[in-house]
Each structure stands twice: as structure tokens, then as C-alpha cells.
Amino acid sequence: MADHLPERRPPEGPPGRDGLDERQIRQLALAGGLVLVVSLLLIFVIENSDPVRVSFVFFAADISLIWVIVLSAVAGAAVGVVVSRLVRRRFFS
Fold this sequence. Notes:
Elements: H1 22-47, E1 51-55, E2 60-64, H2 65-92
Antiparallel strand pairs: 1-2
């Protein structure tokens, strides 16, 4: 007399999740997005590292193109903040 054992099945979870919950999926997506952004930024820096001649008002200099781009972005952001505060102070105070 042989005992009949029931068939063993792995525990069933939510379909299509492969054992990951929503928080883990968001963290993986964030990590993947961060790797993509850092990779693109690194490629951007490498592609724009050639020296260029920049003529300022009183002098000229050979500077790496990436520094010209970064300094222009910082100067533009600073001007934008100052203008925004002046407009807000003038029209909304």
C-alpha cells in the first residue's frame, strides 16, 4: 500500500512580478535612469573636450569647450535668478 502524496507547487505570487515589489521596480528604474544620464553626460564631456579659442572683451584664451558650455550655463542660470527676483520684487510686492 503506497501513500499518494499531493503534487508540490511553488507558492504563487502576483502574476508578472517575478518576485519584485513596486518599490524594488522603482529603485531599479531609477538606477537604470541614473546610469543612462551619467553615461550621456560622460559622453557629452568627452565629445566636447577639445580646446577652443574664446575671445573675451580684453583678452583671448584657449579653453576646453566643455568649460565654455558649463560656465555659460552657470552664468545664464545666475542671470535668470537675478532677473526673476527683480521682476517678482517690482511687480508682486
